[in-house]
Amino acid sequence: MANVSEELARLAQLRDQGVLSEDEFQVQKAAVLKGTPADAPTIAPEKKKSGAAKGCGILVLALIVLALIGMIAGGKGADSSTSAETAATVQPVAVTAQQLFAAYDANEAAAQQTYGDKPLLVTGTVAGVDLGVTNEPHVLLRTSNEFMNAQATLTEASEPQATGLSKGQSITLLCAKVSEVIGTPMLSECDIK
Description:
Elements: H1 4-16, H2 22-34, H3 51-74, H4 80-89, E1 93-96, H5 97-106, H6 108-115, E2 120-131, E3 137-141, E4 150-154, E5 170-181, E6 184-192
Parallel strand pairs: 1-2, 4-6
Antiparallel strand pairs: 2-3, 2-5, 3-4, 5-6
Helix pairs in contact: 1-2, 5-6
């Protein structure tokens, strides 16, 4: 058995590393000073989470957040056809994707008040067609910021037309409403015209 001073130094080191609490240290110290046999119970160090475990947790959280954004921005409710019909009966506000982006970039609150829940007739240039969380097509429209495109979710009736779109093509969409996510215009319930 190690001498008493070595054993006390080892216990102090375990306490300093956070393996032993102050109370556990005092109990072990008293046992060493009383000469308790070497087979007395000792406390095993706790296993700490690895960097991979922490990374997995962050990844899962990020996926949940993205799924929620996708459901909010691109979700289709039972009233999607009603909203599209409403957009067709109320005079839509004509705007380009560039103008819409510039308005949200300058003042999101003012842009939302101006365009928000109003039907919009949006013209622009296709930057791409992506798939959403549930594989519904999203048409991306070019803006002045090459990294932030306006995004349009389509009505079920217009989804098949998304396969025929190509980058650089001019397009006009009749959208039921617009919101924003991190300053990016998110057009909802859009019909390709």
